[in-house]
Records
---
Amino acid sequence: MCGIVAYVGEKDAYSLILKGLKRLEYRGYDSSGIALLEDGELNVYKKRGKVADLESQHAGKALKSTIGIGHTRWATHGEPNDVNAHPHYSNNRKLAIIHNGIIENYASIKQNLIKKGHVFQSETDTEVLIHFIEDIQHEAGNSLEDAVKLALREVVGAYAIVVMSVDHPGQLIAARKGSPLVIGIGENEFFFASDATPIIEYTKDVVYLDDYEVALVRDGKLTIQNLDNTETIPYIQTLEMELETIEKGGYDHFMIKEIFEQPRSIADSMRGRLNASEGHLQLGGLSGYMDDLVKAERIVIVGCGTSWHAGLVAEYLFEELARVNVEVEYASEFRYRNPVITEKDVVIAISQSGETADTLAAIELAKSKGATIFGICNVVGSSIARASHAGAYTHAGPEIGVASTKAFTAQVTVLTLMAIAVAKKKGTISDETYRHLLYEMENIPALVEKVFENATKIKEIAYIYKDSNNCLYLGRGFNYPVALEGALKLKEISYIHAEGYPAAEMKHGPIALIDEDMPVVFLATKDSSYEKIVSNIQEVKARKGRVIAIVTEGDTLIPSMVDFVIEVPEALEILTPLLSVIPLQLLSYYVAVMRGRNVDQPRNLAKSVTVE
Ligand code: F6R
C-alpha cells in the first residue's frame, strides 16, 4: 500500500526520493508525489499513475534541494488523481505532509476547520491532518513538533507521517501509530521510509519508530519523544538486508526471481535451526515460550490470503504430528466475531509483511483475552513481530513481487519445524520419526531445485491454457491448501477466474462447471488420498474436463488418464506442499506473462495491506 520516503542531508533530495519511491513501487499504488524546499519555497509535485509519470512531468527541470518528502498513494479517501495524491499542503501552504494509514475521525475535524475558514483542495483525510496541525500550531503559538503531538493525540486511526515546514529548513518531523516507519541514519543525513528498501543502499543503521513516537530531525540531530513528551533513546539496529535482494538480478520480474530463489530461501528459513545429523532442532525465538505451545489446549492460527493458506497447511501439520486441536481463521473474520479465546489458547499469526491490518487487529484482540501470541513474519521489526510474545522470522529475504511465493514456502517451512519441535517435546512422535523428519526437511531445498527441471514443460502447458476464462484447482489433505494457493496465484496475476476446492467437494457443486473448456489442475501426488484423487480425476475426465495433474515422479497411472502431467519428486506426505506448490507458481507466472499482465504489480493489489 502507500509508501513513504523522506530525506534530509547533503545529497540531492529529488533524485534520491524518486529512486526510493521506485523501490517502493512493489507495495502497490496509484499516484505519487514529492515536496521539496527549493530556495526558501515549499514546492509540491504530484501526479496520478506511476512514479515514471511523475518523473517525466519534470524531466529537464532542475529540482534542487537537500530536503524533501515523497509518497506513493494507494487510494482510500478520494479517487486516485493528481489532487488527492500526497504530499498535501496545510492551509497557509507553509507545511507539507505525507501519510500512510487512515485518520478515521477526519470528517468531524474537517467540519470544525471549515468553520474556521480552512479551504481544502482534496478529498483526503491526510490533508485534514496537516490543516489540523497548522491550526493547533497557530492557536496557542505552539511549536511545530508540539502541534504535531497535540494533533496526533486527537486523531483516531493509523498513521505514519512525515511533516516538513518552509519555516524550518533542515527539519523533518515523523510519527507512527499502527503503520511502519523506519529511520536510516547516515553521515550528516537521515532517511525516513515505510520500509527499509529505499534506505539500504545508503546506510545499514536504522531505528524502527514505535507506536506513539515522534521523531524530530533538527540541526543534524535525531530525537525521539512519545506523544506525552517523554524522550526515548533511539535504538539503532543494523539492517541485514542486502541490496541485491531488492533488485531483479537479470530476471524479467521479481516474481520469477523469487520463485527460483526458493531452494535458498527455504534453506535460509532452516539455517541455524536444524541440523539433522546432530538431531538438532531449535527455534531461538520460541525458547521461553515452548511450554505454552506444548501445553496449549488449542492453537488458533490467523492470517490473510497466502498466509492463511500456510496456516491451513499448519493445521494439518500440528494435528498430524503434535496431536493438538487447531483452528485456522481469516484474521478479518476473527477480529469482528467476538471469538471465544482464553489464556489457555495459543494464537499463531502468520504474515509476510508483518503489517497486515486485520492480522494485527486479530492478535491484539487475542492478546487482550490472555492468549499467548506467536508471530511468523518475514519482515524483521514489523508490527506483528513486535506485537507478538514470541515468534520466528521466516528469513526468506525481501519479497518484492506482489504475489507471495517464497514467503509461502518459508512460512510452511518454519511452521513445519515448529510442529516437529512441539511433537518431539510432547512425545507424540518417536525419536526415529523425529530424526527421519529432520533429514527429510534438510533435503527439501534439493527437491525444490529438481522441480525447476520442469519449467520449460510448465511454460508449454501455460501457452496452451493461457486464454482460458476459468480454472479449477483440486487437492486433498495436505494438498488442499495448495489447491487454494494455486488458484489464488493464477487469479491475482493473470486475472483468470480460478477456484480452489477440496477435491471431494467437487461433487457438491463445482462439478456442474466441468466441460471441455474447463481446465482442472489436480494435486495428485502419491499420498494417503491417492486412490481417491484418481477417482476424482476420472469423474472430471468423464465430463470431458481438461486435466493437468501434479504427480509424483515415476507415476504411470495418472499420466495415462490426463491431458498433462507435471512431476514433483517423491517426499513425505506432510512435506508435499513445499514441492507441489512450485509448479503452480510457475504456471501462474507464465500464463500471466503470456497474457501481458503486470506480474509484479497486478492491478488493485498491494503488497502490504495496512488498511482494512
Ligand atoms: C497473495 C498475497 C496476499 C497476502 C495477504 C497477507 O499472493 O500475497 O494474499 O498473502 O495479503 O499478507 P501478509 O502475509 O503480508 O500478511
Note: Residues 304-307, 351-353, 356, 359, 403-404, 488, 492, 608-609 surround fructose -6-phosphate (CB under 6 Å).
---
Amino acid sequence: MVVILKHNVEENEIARMKGILEGYGCKVTVMNGKDYVVLGLLGDTSDVNIEQIQAYESVDRVMRVQEPYKKANRAFHPENTVVDVCGIKIGGNKVPVIAGPCSVESEEQIVEIAKNVKASGASFLRGGAFKPRTSPYSFQGLREEGLDLLKLARKETGLPIVTEIMSADMIDRFVSDVDIIQVGARNMQNFELLKQLGKTRKPILLKRGLSATVEEFLMSAEYIMAGGNENVILCERGIRTFETYTRNTLDLSIIPAIKKLSHLPIIIDPSHAAGLWWMVEPMSKAAIAAGADGLIIEVHNDPEHALCDGQQSIKPKKFDALMTKLKAIAAVEDREI
Ligand code: PEP
Ligand code: MN
C-alpha cells in the first residue's frame, strides 16, 4: 500500500503519519519526491483502515498494491482448490454439471427430473426449497417439505443435492440434509449468514451478487473462508447491466479473471444469466470453452407449468442433447464431464 501525502507537508507531520502507519504493524519507507512525499507500506496491510487514513488532512490519496482478500487470493495459494463433495471433485479435471428445477414442486416432479438428469450425466441435483422471490405473492418454495423431497430424490438416484439457504437459523438443518449449500445472489453480501457458514465445513456454492464487482465477490468468499471453511465454489449467474433483452448479462470474462486472482473453482449458471431457455445451450457451451469448472442448469419436465422460472428451464430431452455436446467441448480443453 502507498500513502501519498499532500504538497508541502511539514517534516513533523510526515513523521507523525509514519508513526501512525507503523502502528498497524507495517514497515514504512518514506520517499521524498520533487512534489510529493510517498509513504510505502510493506508487510500485512489487511488491517490498515484505508478510510481512516484518508480522513487525515495531510493525506492526498491511498493506493492498494495488494488485493484486500487473503485466503481467496491465488498469490498466497498458487494451486487450484479442488472441493470434494461426496467424492465428486469440483475444480479439478472434471467439469461437473448440477441440474434440476428452479424449485422443488412435488415428489413426482423432483424424482422424475432427478432420474432424467442423472441418466444424462449430471453429477448433482439442484432444486430450491426456500425461494428468494421478488414478489411476496409469488410461490415461496415448499420450504422444509422441499428439503425432505430433495432427500428422497437423492435416495432414489444417488445424486448429491444442492439447495439455497436464506437464513442462518436453518444452518444446522442444511448441514445435516444437504450436500452443497447455495448462497443466492441476493444474499451474497449477507455477511452474518456468510460468517455462520464459515463456521461449518460444508461446501458452499456462492453466487455472484446482482451488481457485485469481482472484488466484492471475492471478499464475500473471504468471509466464509475467514471462519475456516475453505470449501467455497464461486458461481457467476449474470449481472445487472443496461441491457434488458436478457434477464442479466452473463459475464464470461469473470472465468479467466477469477482464475488469475483466485484459486477457487468457478461455475456458470446460464439459466439465471440469460433468463431464456433457448440461450442456455450456447451460453453453456461458451462457459465450458472459456474454462468454467462446472455448470448449474435449470431443467424442468413441464416448463410451461413450472411454479418458478419456467421461461429459462430446458426440458430433459434438450438437456440430454446438450450434455453430449458439452462433453465434446470439454474434451477440447482436456477436461471431462
Ligand atoms: C436459484 O439458483 O434458484 C436462484 C434464485 O439464483 P440466483 O440467486 O442466482 O438468482
Ligand atoms: Mn431459478
Note: The chain is about 35% helix and 20% strand.
